[in-house]
Amino acid sequence: MTYCVGLRLDRGLVFMSDTRTNAGVDNISTFRKMTSWEVPGERVITLLSAGNLATTQAVVSLLDERTKAPEERDPTILGAPSMFQVARQVSETLRDVIGRQAQAGQRADSTFNATLLVGGQIADAPPRMFMIYPEGNFIEAGEDTPWFQIGETKYGRPILVRGFDRAMSFEDAVKLLMVSFDSTLKANLSVGLPFDLQIIERDALVLGPRRRIAADDPYYHEISERWGAALREALDSLPDYSFET
Length: 245
What we know:
The protein is an alpha+beta fold. It has five helices and twelve strands. It has a five-stranded antiparallel beta sheet with strand order 10-1-2-11-12, covered by helices on one side. The protein has a five-stranded antiparallel beta sheet with strand order 5-6-7-8-9, covered by helices on one side.
């Protein structure tokens, strides 16, 4: 399992993903779940993945290979006229990969399922972000649903529900994601460091700051410790329960 989040802000898009994969408690590995492409001045795209690792790596490899040989698939995600068309290409690729694996003699399609987040900006169009399901259908982030989660979502969701503001700065968005990811990591062993972070600033049309937050990152440790202390202080400040009433 994994945990990935994409935020749609007024200022642009923010993506964060963990890197843990596991096939049991004695088989834990680290793999990047985030892939980005850019044509500076024309488009930027970021893809996050959760689910079967063989499926997600096959999807990313196919998408990337087509950008290097566009005559085999025209347009590619670097030639599609809109982010909607990018999402369609990604969804078709995901559906095809899952279908081929199922046809190869495996018994359960669900074994190879994966869910993807893809977002970015093309030319003068606004930034857009989509969540793509294993069946190949997808939905778009909008005014009512300005952020998406995939993977192990339940532990970090309350933080986003209470703290997200589409007008927030990139710095505040990263702080919010740090708390959400820390809460998830503390509650679930299938999510782990390092975390990958990607910023896409609105209308910049180049990839923004990209960071890897490792286990020894001092800012992450400060956020984790101070958030834990703040929760304990908040709990202590609440009225005491009485068995007499």
